[in-house]
User: Fold this.
Amino acid sequence: MWKITSVGIYLLLFALLIGCSPSLIEVPVEEPASLGYITSVHKELTSLPSAKEPIVAAVYKFRDQTGQYKTSASGVTWSTAVTQGATSMLLKALEDSKWFTVIEREGLSNLLNERKIIRSSRENFMNGEGEKLPPLPPLLYAGVILEGGIISYETNTVTGGIGARYFGIGTSTQYRKDEVSIYLRAVSTQTGKVLKTVYTTKSILSMSVDVNVYRYVRFKRLLEVETGYSVNEPPQMCVLEAIEKAVLSLVVEGIMDKLWTLQNPQDIKLPVIVDYLKEKDQVEGRVDYDISPNLAPRNFGIGLNGGLQQYVGDYRNANREPVIEPFFRFNFSPQFSIALDGIYGKVSNEDKFSTRLNLVELKGLWYLLPSQRISPFFMGGGGMIKYFPQDPDGKDLPVDKSKDEPAPNFVMSAVYGAGVEYFLNRAWSFHLTVANHYAFTDQLDGKIHGKLKDSFFDAKLGFTYYLVH
Assistant:
């Protein structure tokens, strides 16, 4: 009976893990056709103010200039990494903006052949009144030619993941970030001058989640269950969003440079234009791939952490107590730094003791992604603890209940942990840390018992201000 129950427990735990995602076990059999994908930029593109006069524009070819092919487990395939239909996407974006009169140039040879057929037919046939049919009107010519293409497709710019396994039950997640970049330029057909060039980029995100159980439930009886799913942004949809952003940028930049004119000059204050200009100012002050936490301009920083800490020792029912941590940070290389911390808090349980703690710690930090805006890191070091063990009524606790002697309140400690830091700009960063502090004493709780020393762990959220030289 116990063996059957244990199997049921494992299956129940596994069901709880995947219960919040019922779609994991749903396999779609059929999906009807639907309208095309709408990007997050499309609404902004279609809300542009009206032009005084639409711009007649021609697009001969908006090419894939990356030269990259898809990779697979068996090697490189002959399938390209990005779509070859970017010209059609650009024509649709230009049409949706209502700022351009788009003329056909990609299939120009087909258009000319068809006009030859029509012209020949008109020469050989007459209308109902016996008169020759009028000649075809001339083709509309462009005032602006739009050139450019997909200039880069970078894979694995950021990768990472996290996982945990306990008692044969585990889960893990992995993610990856790719990037596609678009250049678009407007060229005057009268002079050949490049009027404006814009550049946009779009991230392509991929994520996978796995959940599994691997456990012997009895002798020669192995329970193994696994499930998972992955989500991948389609690269062609990301290319479409980048193209629409480029068209939006080209229109607004042309308005600001007086290359083309608004029908109503007051529309310059509309949110779509104001928001774009704000975004441009933010981008111009941002350096995405020069955000190393330990570069020379950031050789010294000050900061503050706050969070909760919890005691681990001889007593159960430990409380979570607030903790505050001011610190100084010294950076020596793009990957390594040291921190001098002061920690103020306490550890306690429900009814046995309450110990105030003052710590000074010296820690080393090692960054896994030192050149990225967001980077995980590991840390380790040691320090000194000054502690004041008391009972819940505020009375000092002795080292041993048989002796009426207060515990000495200075002791060495060790610390290790991990965290992640996000760099808002070159001066400010935010970080989340989890650490375990091991005291070389068993007296934090006023009770000496067994061979293990007392310890406590904490989780803190804080910020750092880097002094820029």
